[in-house]
Amino acid sequence: MTHTPGINRPSRKIIEALGHIGAASVAGILGHMGIRSPHMVGPVSWNPGKSIVGPALTLQFMPKREDLYSDGEYTDPEKQLHRHVLYHVEAGDVVVVDARGDMSAGVFGDMMSTYFKGRGGAGMVIDGCLRDYPNLKKLDLPLWLRGWTPNFHTMTNLMPFAVNVPIACGGVTVIPGDIIVADDDGAVVLPVALAEQVIEKSQTHHEWEEFSRMKLMQGAPLQRYYPLHDDARGEFEDWLKANDSR
User: Fold this and answer.
1) Angle at Cα 102 formed by Cα 100 and Cα 107, nearest 5°?
2) Is the CB of residue 9 less than 8 Å from the CB of residue 157?
3) I need a surface site. Which of 84, 174, 207, 211 has the fewest CB within 10 A?
4) Which of the four pLDDT bands, split at 50, 70 and 90, describes residue 74?
5) Is the pLDDT of residue 245 over 50?
6) Which domains does the chain have, with CATH numbers?
């Protein structure tokens, strides 16, 4: 069997803490930390209301070269590296695929996606397409994709090339083991080394936004409460104490 590398997974504590923070908050905090655009542009939610947080297993596709990859879908299945990324799946993992934005090739279909769900996969982010939409819809998997196609990938111009290597997905570099935070706003890449800072900053951000939202709903001045002006910080601190929010 072809050997492909695994990944290092972040602690459950980090994953669980990030589960309370949306993709927009993570992207905003990362932006203030100097990560300009962690949002993978192109893949969008196909299962509204679903959100996921988990480490990235990566799959890279390249333009097909016939001397490297034959047309036969079942001639030697173990040479098909898109199968091998699924062999690594553990509960809570996210498969992230650089399919080059190709709209004609289905990266996975019904059977492979069923296997992914059976292994406890959290969801998929694919810069490209899946196939077998009627059956995958029944699986109720969280999916962020560009779209759907009836084609399987060996029919067209892509070949699976590498598993658990750095990839580009939606214009963002994804390192194997990076944390994916995805919801209806989109899918965001969070470097593991920055995760604890993001969690810490999100708590403070959430508290003042909650206070400011309340004041804005009361018709209070936008200039004073969003972003929270220094002159209103004492008022905010009093509100925190009164509501025992910390």
Assistant:
1) 90
2) no
3) 207
4) low
5) no
6) 12-190 (3.50.30.40), 197-243 (no CATH)
